[in-house]
Amino acid sequence: MSVIQDRKLVEISIDELRIPSEKVAHVQLNNPLEHALLVLVKSGYSAVPVLDASYKFVGVIGKTVILNQILGLENFEIEKLSEMKVKEVMDRNTPTLTRENTLLDGLNAVIDHTFICLIDDEGFFDGILTRRAILKEIKKNIYINSYKK
Ligand code: 2BA
């Protein structure tokens, strides 16, 4: 069933579309790049959240930035994968939302990002909102409304 139905986009909280933190692949600040690349390749995702040791959200790391870091002038400098840590190359400027934000906030955010990390009021990681979840929900609503007419 659609969670939108006759409700406005601003009345629906992101909580209803959230992927909970325990189902989200992540890496930690002090992990070597080798571990992060392994998580990314094995999970199949192009980017995943980065958490600190207390599970607070810090940023995002993706395959492209790792491969760029180890790319030398003529070949890949594979030893860098064990020498460098996630915290040295990750992106710390990614937007976040909370469960209480609305579907409209989520829709605005996923225009420029494939997923948005959710945090609680103390900064602890609280799951993600994906572009797929938002688009699926909006698509269901379009179908429901087109059958009503
Ligand atoms: P990408 O990894 O670039 O994935 C782009 C889209 O490809 C995903 O969109 C999904 O539709 C599909 N996809 C990729 N890998 C998949 C897999 N292992 N299983 C099922 N479908 C897969 P979204 O679902 O909208 O996800 C957007 C982004 O959110 C992903 O981008 C990834 O960076 C992140 N993501 C999604 N679920 C995640 C999870 N459980 N753990 C960590 N990151 C996740």
From TrEMBL:
Matches recorded under PROSITE patterns: CBS
Transmembrane feature ranges: none
Protein name: Cyclic-di-AMP-binding protein CbpB
UniProt-listed InterPro entries: CBS_CbpB (IPR048125), CBS_dom (IPR000644), CBS_dom_sf (IPR046342), Diverse_CBS-Domain (IPR051257)
Domain CBS: 20-78
SUPFAM superfamilies: CBS-domain pair (SSF54631)
Record keyword Nucleotide-binding present: no
Transcription listed as a keyword: no
